[in-house]
Sequence to fold (571 residues):
Amino acid sequence: MTAALAQPLVDDRSSIADAQSDLIEEFDLFDDWDDRYEYLISLGRKLPEFPEDWKTEANRHYGCQSQVWLVHHWNGDRLRLSATSDALIVSGLIACLLRVYDGRTADEILSAPPAFIAEIGFDRHLSGNRGTGLQTMVDAIFKRAREGRPQP
Amino acid sequence: MSAVANAVTEVGPSVLDVDRVRADFPILTRKVHGKPLIYLDNGASAQKPQAVIDATRHCWEHAYANVHRGLHTLSGEATDAFEAARNTVARHINADSAEEVVFTKGATEAINLVAASWAANHLGPGDAILISEMEHHANIVPWQLLCERTGIELRVVPVTDAGELTLDAVAERLDGRVRLVAVTHTSNVLGTVTPAKAIARLAHDRGALVLFDGSQAAVHGAVDVQDLDADFYTFTGHKLYGPTGIGVLYGRRALLDDMPPYQGGGEMIHEVRFEGSTFAAPPHRFEAGTPPIVEAIGLAAAIDYVNAIGFDAIAAHEADLLAYATERLAGIDGLTIHGQAETKAAIVSFTLAGAHASDIGTLVDRRGVAIRTGHHCAQPLMRRLGVEGTARASFALYNTRSEIDVLVDALERARRILV
Fold:
């Protein structure tokens, strides 16, 4: 499973703060929410392929409206994340979360709450934060960071 | 065919003045994302007319106190209004008397009440309860819990591909062990109006009682519990343009008389001693604690409101909306309507090939259109349909053809983005 997971880790990746500001800037380029939705959907379409056999019950997160599958592993001290959803808007949100949190250390993650969600306005504009399960996904990522890397 | 079925299918000249009706609903003037609200989620809960808002407000402001207790003026007035509301409900569903109308907090509680009080005390191992494949979770889970506890068998009648409940399918499962048939009167997902009267006749012939979940049916047509020959009939207030927190259990008097209390507390007692208590007669036996007083009064105002318009006019208007919506939606590429029953209420569930229902719901919301997406509290039916979920437009007396046009445009746009 490890080998196929996510994109290669680039050493000089920007910080979580940079990733969040990049997202905020990108969404700020659009004049209205109709266009932001379309952009979010386009990000969702570009999510790296998630193998069908990873869509197990254990990896599934229940949302009221759509399904999310989240897989993680530790690459050294870095948390690698891979996720997908059957709904495109949720997939777009996943793409944003992965840009921010994939490949970070537990300390980096735990000291950087997802401020971009409120900055961009996802919390106010996505009909039903609960419906998209955005908070559930954030909680799941933070839970894995808190649990940390399994000790050898 | 039931009164509901007839009312829903007979398309007569509509005498409903929809502009006037819309003016009765203050919320319909609001905007969503800068667009006029188009509220098509009535199957989940309906909006409230000014008459209901006024009635509840009047109660809070002028005539509020606890009921059946004080000797003071306000308590008397509140009690009179509360019991008058019960009379309004009884007349509305043609119950034999107001004693057959138990106020509950909703249809869910009404069904749980029958499960806990009637079924738990009258049925046991060897007996069976029959439900259908298209029930709302509220008419599945209470029976499941009961059956797990008592060893009663829970049996399920499948529905046809069109989403119909056939008498043959029901009859096939009535083998003498079935003591209760508990089925929906109108499906919240498919809009199917079930042949309730014929089901009651069949069940009674085979020694079973019937309970109809009328939460959707009571909204779209007149309900006559005596004509249906229902033993129990349940519905909720908030889908019928009334407040939340109020529902109705109709029970045949002889059945209610023979049922033990559902919950214990004040209001439901005759005399309380530590050695043992005796209980009030129905319906108060089943209304432990302070009831939803203002909500009951609000429900009566809602019933008066729909009756002033008339269910013939409402049903004709909604039948027109259903026919128009069905025709327009069928014209969208890749759209499948789930539920093609011959007798349908104004509820249309659909899926769009290649698009997830939640994405559709979010995108049409941007156009001010409120529809429901997901499993509609009917997961077994979703499995039967072979879908994860559907989108659902459910219509009310204040909806219009031009709102359906906006829905269709919004769906066309969503399809362009998503598919």
Summary: Residues 1-13 of chain B have pLDDT under 50 and may be disordered.
